[in-house]
Amino acid sequence: MWDQLPHAENWLLFLENLGLYLSIDETSLSNGELYTIIINREAHGGKGAIVAIVKGTKADDVIAVVEQIPEEALQMVQEVTLDLSESMRKIVRRCFTSAIRVIDRFHIQKLACDAVQEIRIGHRLEAVQEETEARQEAKGLKKKYVSPTFV
C-alpha cells in the first residue's frame, strides 16, 4: 500500500525530490481549490520536480508538512524562489532558514509595470488638466483654441 494514501487528499511529500534550489507558489488545480506547491527547480518541471503539494495556502498548514523533512536536509537548501505573499515568506523563513529568498521575476516585472502605469496616468491627467485650462483661457479671451501638435 502507498504510504501517503491516508493523507494524499490534503498533502503529498516527496523527500527524494528535495534539491538545493526550490520554488514555492500557490496554484488552483480544479474548482478554485488552492494548493501550495514546492518544486525542485533543477528538475525543470519534469520528473522529480514536486517536493510537496499541500491543500490550501495557510502558512501553518504548509509548515507542518515541510517540517516532516529532516532538519539537515532543509538546511541544505540554498535558494527558494517565491512571490510577494506574506504566507510564502513565512513558510520559507521558518522552514528553509539557510536559504536565500529570491522574489520571482514575474512579480518584480508586474510591480515595475504597475509603477510605470501609475506615472503614465499621472502625466496623462496633468496633460488633460493643462489642456482644459488652455481651452478655458482661450474661451475667456474669445480666441479659438488650437491644440499643440507634435511633429
UniProtKB/TrEMBL annotation:
Domain Transposase IS204/IS1001/IS1096/IS1165 DDE as annotated: residue spans: 22-142
A Pfam match: DDE_Tnp_ISL3
Domain of life, source organism: Bacteria
Name of protein: Transposase
Organism: Bacteroides muris (ex Fokt et al. 2023)
